[in-house]
Request: fold
Amino acid sequence: MSAITPAASTPGPEAASPATASQDANASASSIDRQILEYLRARGHKAAEQALLESLEQGGTPDENKAGPSSTISTDDLVKKLAIITQKSTKPGDSSLKDASTVLSEMVAIGNSVNIQNLVSSIGNVGAEDILSLDPGDKQEGYRELEAWVEGSLDMYRPEFRPILFPIFVHFYLDLIQHGFKDAALKFFADYSASLAPAHSATLHHLSTLHLPTHVQNDELAQRFRNEKYTIRMSRSGFSLLIGWLNEGIGGESLGSGVGFAGEKGKRGRGAIMRVVNNHLKFDVTSAPGTSVSAESWEESSGLLSSLIPQTAGSTTYDPMAFNAAKGQLKLGPAPVPEDLQHETERVVREQSMVDRDPGAQTVDVKREVEKIRDARKRIRLDPSALSTANLSAAHGAAARSRAIPSICAYTLHDVGEGAPCVTFSQDTSLMAAGFSESYVRLWSLKGEKLKGLRSDFQTSSITGAKSLRKIREKGGSTTRKLIGHSGPVYSVAFDPVGGSAVPPKYLLSCSADATTRLWSLDTMTNVAVYRGHQNPVWDVQWSPMGVYFATASRDRTARLWSTDRASALRIYAGHLSDVDCVRFHPNSLYLATGSSDWTARLWDVQRGSCVRVFIGHQNIVSTMAFSPDGKYLATAGEDLAINIWDIGSGRRVKKMTGHTASIYSLAWSAESSVLVSGGADWTVRCWDAKSSGGPASKSNQNGMIVNGYGGEENGITKEHDELPSIETSDLLATFPTKRTPIVNVQFTPRNLCLVAGPYLSPEQR
Amino acid sequence: MSKQKARATNAQLTGLYKPEAVKDVAESLNITGLSDAIASALASDVEYRIHQVVEEAGRFMRHARRTTITTSDIDQALRVLNIEPLYGHFPHNPPTFRRAPPFPQAPSVGTVYFVEDEEIDFDRVIREEKITMPKGVNWTAHWLAVEGVQPLIPENPPAIPRDIEGEPSGIKREPSTARPGGLFPPTPPSSDRPSPMQGAKKQQQPLVKQVLSRELQLYYTRLTSSLLPPSSDDTKRNAALASLRNDAGLQALLPYLVRWVGEGVVNALKGGVQTDNDGRVLGVLLDVIGAILDNPTLFVEPYLHQLLPPILSTLLHSTLPPTYATYLRTTASQILSRVLRQHSTTYPSLSPRIMKTLLLALISPGKSKGTREGAIRGLMGVGKEAVRKGLVEGGGAKVVGSECMPGEQSPVVDSVIAALKVLHPPSSHPLPLNTYADTDQPLITQLQETLGEFFAEQLLFDRDWAAGILSGSSEPS
Reply:
C-alpha cells in the first residue's frame, strides 16, 4: 500500500499514476522515474515532484518497493493487496485503479499464468464488482437514483445539488462511448438529457455527436472533461449530505424514496457515481449557508474552470474570484488629459462661448476636446431611475419614460445580398460603413455629401496647400463608395476615433475571413495598409480610444494589438481556449477585454499582455460586449441570450439580464452609463436599466416561493404564468421591435441619441 | 440553428447517417460485403465529421450575423479545417430540396430527398434576355423610438396589444411554449413560417384573415376612421388621402376599400333628406376614389365595375345636399373622365356602358333635374363627342329645355350651357342672330329642332356659337 501513496497524493489527473505504476514491473525503474518526474514537472505538481525526488534519493524507488514484493508474495497476499487497492479507490481524494481490466492485465503481466485461474476465482466479489461496473445498466440506474435524490432534496439544497448532475451525466456518457457501448450511450443520452437541456444545450449537442471511442479521445471538449476537474461549489452541510448519500445510499432525499437505492444494483450505481466524483469533480466547499445560493450562481462557480483561469506560477486556482482578487487593483479612472491640451481646450471653450466665431486653425486634439465638452453640455440625460418612482399617473409616467429611454434612429439596409455582418457609424455621424459577406466594404455619407477621393494622377510637387489639395479631388462622385480589397466576408469595420465628434474620421479599419485587417484612408478612399499575422479569420477589430493602436480578435484563439504604422502585431494576448469573438478597449486604453467561444471574457493589461481578470458565468459563447463610459462596468452578451454586467474592479457579476429571444449582436451604453441598449437577431432593440437590481420579473417572482403564508393569493393569480414563464428580467425598460431587421449595430452618439442599424430581410429570403 | 439542434436531438437514437448509406457508397466503389460493424462504425464517424463541419460553419454563420447556415458558411468551415471546399454552390441561390414520392417496393428506405435540377432551355433563355441587375444596397432611416415611445409609422411594426394579463412580453408573437424552460431562442418571430397548429387555426377562420396582414388590417381601420366624420381633423384626412395616393403595397386592401366606398355612398344617399354631413361624406368618398385611381401602384381595373356605381350614383342622384351638389357632381364627372381616360383602352366596353347609363338618365322621362344635371356633367366628363351625342343628337337639351320654365336660372341650365360651351366655344364678339333675317331663319329653325325652344332662345345672341354647335352635329365625323 505504501508503494502507491506518493503517486496517489498528487492532485494530477486520474489514472495517470496508477497506470504508470502498473507498467513498472516490467520496465526499467530508472527510465520510468524520469518519465514520472517529467510528467509531474510538465503538470506543475511541484510538491509531488519533490516527494518523488526525495524518495529516489533515499535509495529505493517506490516502484521497486512495489515490484520487489510482488515477485515473492503468495497469490493470496496479492489478492488481499489488490482488494485493498480496489476498495480504497472508492474513498474520496484517492485515485483508483481504473477498472478491473487493468487489474487483470497487471496480473497477467506479473506472469505466473498457472495461478491466474485461482486468482480470478479468489478475487471473488471484489473483482467481480469492478467488472460489473462496466455494465451500462449501472450507470443508468445510478444516474436515475442521483436525479431522484437531487430532485427530492430540500428546496434549500436543490440549487446546490443540481449542478452535480451535469458532470456526472457527461462522464457516464463518455464512459459508455469509450467502452464501446454506443447503443447504451445513446439510450442513456435520450433518457436523461432532457432535464439538462435548458441549461447545457450547447455542450449536450456537442457531446451527442460523439459516437466512437476515437471521437472521445480526439475531441477537445471530451478531453477537457476527462483531464480537468469539474468544479462545483457547495455549502458544507450540502457536501456532507452528498457524501453521506454516496456512502450509505440514504440521507437528504425526500421521504419514502430511501428504499429504492439499497440493493446490490443500487450500490454499484452509487459506486459508479462515486468514481466520477472522485476522479473528475472538485468541490469548492464554502461555509456560506445553502440558502444564500441563488439559482443562477452556479454559472459562475461550476464548470471546467481550472483551464479557463490563467494559471500563475504553478498554482492551480479553481475559483475565478480568487484569481481576480490575486491580480490586485486596476486603474479604471478616465485617461489623463495632457495639461496643455486641457488649458488650450478651456481657453477655446471660453472664447467660443463669448463670440460664436469660426474655430479657425486648431489641432484635431483641441477640436475633439472642445466638442466633447459641448456634447456633454447638450447631452440628453437618460435617467431610468425616474421611471421606477414615477409610474403612477399616466402623464407623469410618459414624462419619466421620455427621460429614461433614449430616442432611437434606425438605419435599415435594403437589398443586401448575402448579408451585412457589420455596420458602424462614425462618431460625428457623418459616415456609415457596412461590411458585406460579398467581401467589400461600403461607405455612405449620411449628410448627403459626395464622397470624393483623391485622383491618382498628380505630381506631389504640385501640392502646396489646402487649395491645391482640393484641386486634385475627384470630380463628381456619389454619396456612397465601395471599398474593395478583402477576399472573404468582412466581419467588422471601425472608424478611427481621433477626431471625436468634431471632425470626420480619416481612417477605417476592416477585418475579414481572409485573415487580414485592412486600413482604409478616407481621404483617398483606398486601402493603405494590410496587417497580416492571424492565421485564421479575424472576427473583430477595434481602435483604441486615442487612435493609432488597434486590437483584433481571431479564430486562432488570440487577440492581438497592432499599431497602424507597423505591419506586425505588437502584443499577442493568448490564453483563451477557443475563438476570440470580440475585443473592446477600456475607455482609458489601459485594458483590453476579449470575449471568447470558451464562454468566458477576459480583461488584459494592454502593456504587459497579461490577463488581469476573468469573467466566468456565460453558459455559451460570448458574442459581444461593451465597456461603460465611466470605465467601471463591462457588459457582455452571449449566445445564452443573457446580458451580464460585470464589476471590473472586483470581477464579480453584478447582474444577469435576460429577455432576448435570439442572438444578441450588439450592446451600447448611454453616455452616463445608466442605460444599456442591445440589439439582436430577434429583430428587436431593447433598453435596459443598468443601475437597477434586476432579477426576475416581479410577476414570475412568486412562482418558486410559496413558503410564506401571504404568497397564497399571489399564487392564485400567477397560476396562468406558470405555463408561460417570462424570461424577461425586471430591468428591461422597453422593447422596440422592427419589422424584419436583425439589429447588427447599436451605438450612442456623444449626445445620447441611439443609432441602430441592420439589414432588412425580405420575407422571400429563407 | 436552433432548429437544427432540435432535429439532431430528435434523431439521436438512430443516428442521422445510416450504415446503409455507407454500404451504398461502398458498393458504388466496388467494395462489396462490408460488414455491419464496419458500416455502422463508419457511419458514426461520418456523422461526427459532419457535425464538426457544421459546428465550425455555425461560427461563420454567427459572425455573419445570420440565423441560417448557408453554403458559403460550409465552404468557409471546410477551408479553415483544411479541406477543399465544395465548389458550385452559391448562397444566394440555395438549391431546393424536394421529397421524392414514397417508394412502395422498399418501404425501409424511408423518405428520400433530392436536389431539384431544373432543366434550362437555352433557346428560351436567349430569347427572353431577362437578366436583371440586382439593385444596389441602399439605406433608409426612420425613428424606431422617440423619447421612449415607438411612433406608429409604416416603417415600424404595428403595436401589438398587450396581453390580457398585462404581460410585458410585447413582441413575442409565438411564445416559446414548446421549449422547456423557455430559455431557448425560437428563430426570430416570423409570421411567414407558421407552425402546423397555427396553420390549422388559420384555416378555420374566414379567408379574409389569411389574406390581409395584420399591418394592413390596422392600416385599414386607421385609414377609414380618420377619413370620415366624426373625425373632423382635416390634416389627418389629408394625410390619409396622401397615403392612399402614394403608398405602395395597398393592393391587398383594394377590394375592401372599394367595398367600403360603395357602402359609404349607399348609406349617405339612402336617407331621403340629404344633410350637409352626407355631402361631406360623399365628398370624402369621391376623394378616396380619386386617390385610389391616382395611386400608380394599384391595379384598379378588376374593381372598376364596383367603383363605377358609387361614382355614377353620386353623379346622378336626384337630391344631393344643395350646398354640395354642384361640387359633388363636378368632382364625380372629373373622376369619371379620369376612369375613362385611364381604362377605356384596355376595357373597351367601358365607355359605351357609361354612355348608356348617362343617356338614359338624361333623356328618359320622369327624372329629376338633379339627375339630368348630373348626366350632363357626366357627359362633359366623358368628352365632347358624348356631349354632342347626348345633348344635340339624342335630344337631351330638348328634354331639359322642355322641363324648364322660360327664363329660369338653375344648375341644370348652367350645366347645359357649360356643356354647349364644351361642344363649341362661344365667340369672343357675339353677333346676335337676326330672327327676321332670311339668312338666319334656317339656322334658327334647326336650332329649335335640335335643342328645343328653351335653349334655342339662349343661343340666339351668338350666331357663330349656334352655328358651330349645329355644324358639328350635322356632319358628325
Q: What stands out?
A: Chain A is about 35% helix and 20% strand.
